[in-house]
């Protein structure tokens, strides 16, 4: 009872705990329902596994894991690699390409080219048994690019000077704090040419063409899906659904194929933070050799 003589009602903490417990039980039941629904939607029988490669190729880990998972699954008879990518870093691109080639030794793989499959995006598509694209898909950009800023004049204006101690003349090649030397250019051109030759060779092998047939198409240009079909860079014109049907047929699936995709995890706080750094990371990767195409 307070000073005014009014008796305060007693709180019962037991009901509070019951309420919290019920709330968390509902959340858990809801999550379990989502999981069970996802499992039931997959159903039984043979399926086509879907692997999506979207955006710049900066890492191969996730894509390689998905491909290996579908390779191991007994209920997945064929795989569609859906590509919407302007390309990316050289090594991750080659790792995905090699993994697709390895998987297709056991299960058919159809490369479905979406809005753009240029440079590294086209490179990984070459690993599939069949390349299918829309008439207006942007394809090609066979080549390598490396670029970096040279900021010596800007640094001079603001009075900033760098002192670099290095073990060799080319140890700081690509540094924005000094001018590019002729030795730098020779070295970088040799490296780009080596990677370019690897790309051209992959096209020649993947498309059953000679190097001489590929070279006129490998000057960095992009082509539509229709032109790519004409030049032999892809096998056929078709939609994403067509690619799924084709993969199902190649995997001996009758009727409309069921599909399955790798379950995506919900974004964590760390994902949100890293997402905000995406542009910065992308800009840093611009300084590395890349199989990449983009409109400026």
Question: Explain this structure to me?
Answer:
By secondary structure, the chain is α/β, with parallel strands linked by helices. It has a domain at 46-143 and 211-263 and 272-292: 2-enoyl-CoA Hydratase, Chain A, domain 1. Helices cover 45% and strands 17% of the residues. The protein has helices at 13-42, 61-72, 90-103, 120-125, 152-158, 182-206, 211-214, 225-231, 240-250, 269-276, 278-285, and strands at 47-54, 76-85, 87-89, 109-118, 130-133, 138-140, 222-223, 236-237, 258-261, 290-292. Strands 1, 2, 4, 5, 6, 7, 8 and 9 form an eight-stranded mixed beta sheet that branches. It has a two-stranded antiparallel sheet with strand order 3-10. Strand 4 (109-118), helix 4 (120-125) and strand 5 (130-133) form a beta-alpha-beta unit. Helix 2 runs parallel beside helix 3 (90-103). The radius of gyration is 27 Å and the shape is flat.
Write the layout of secondary structure elements.
Elements: H1 13-42, E1 47-54, H2 61-72, E2 76-85, E3 87-89, H3 90-103, E4 109-118, H4 120-125, E5 130-133, E6 138-140, H5 152-158, H6 182-206, H7 211-214, E7 222-223, H8 225-231, E8 236-237, H9 240-250, E9 258-261, H10 269-276, H11 278-285, E10 290-292
Parallel strand pairs: 1-2, 1-9, 2-4, 4-5, 4-6, 5-8
Antiparallel strand pairs: 3-10, 6-7
Helix pairs in contact: 2-3
């Amino acid at each position: 009872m307070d000073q005014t003589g009014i008796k305060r009602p007693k709180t019962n903490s037991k009901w509070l705990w019951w309420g919290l417990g019920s709330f968390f039980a509902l959340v858990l039941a809801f999550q379990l329902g989502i999981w069970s629904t996802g499992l039931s939607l997959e159903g039984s029988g043979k399926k086509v596994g879907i692997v999506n490669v979207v955006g710049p190729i900066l890492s191969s880990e996730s894509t390689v894991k998905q491909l290996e998972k579908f390779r191991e699954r007994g209920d997945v008879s064929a795989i569609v690699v859906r590509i919407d990518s302007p390309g990316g870093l050289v090594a991750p691109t080659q790792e995905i390409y090699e993994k697709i080639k390895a998987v297709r030794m056991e299960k058919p793989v159809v490369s479905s080219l979406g809005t753009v499959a240029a440079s590294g995006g086209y490179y990984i598509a070459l690993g599939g048994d069949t390349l299918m694209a829309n008439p207006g898909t942007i394809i090609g950009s066979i080549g390598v690019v490396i670029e970096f800023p040279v900021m010596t004049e800007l640094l001079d204006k603001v009075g900033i000077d760098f002192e670099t101690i290095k073990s060799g003349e080319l140890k700081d090649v690509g540094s924005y704090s000094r001018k590019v030397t002729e030795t730098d250019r020779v070295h970088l051109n040799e490296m780009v040419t080596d990677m370019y030759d690897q790309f051209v060779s992959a096209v020649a092998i993947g498309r059953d063409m000679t190097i001489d047939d590929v070279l006129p198409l490998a000057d960095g240009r992009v082509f539509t899906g229709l032109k790519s079909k004409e030049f032999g860079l892809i096998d056929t014109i078709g939609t994403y659904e067509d690619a799924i049907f084709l993969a199902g047929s190649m995997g001996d699936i009758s009727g409309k194929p069921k599909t399955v995709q790798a379950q995506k995890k919900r974004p964590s706080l760390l994902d949100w933070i890293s997402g905000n750094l995406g542009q910065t990371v992308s800009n840093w990767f611009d300084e590395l050799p890349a199989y990449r195409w983009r409109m400026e």
